Write the structure tokens for this entry.
Amino acid sequence: MTDPNASVYPYDFENDVRGLTKREYFAAMALQGILSRDHIQIGKIAAINAIRYADDLIKQLNEKPSS
């Protein structure tokens, strides 16, 4: 369903801009959520958890729905 290395935004041929990958985009969104909570995780721990959330989301998106 989703390639974690695919670009979030369409490719800009004129400026050779590929943008963020889906994995990077999902991790950034997760990190934003982590840092917005009252009990803030710091630095590397927050980044590692954001990446784990992104990987988990991609894994779930790629699983076939059970009927």
Observations:
- The mean pLDDT is 82.
- The first helix runs from residue 22 to 36.
- The two ends are 17 Å apart (CA to CA).
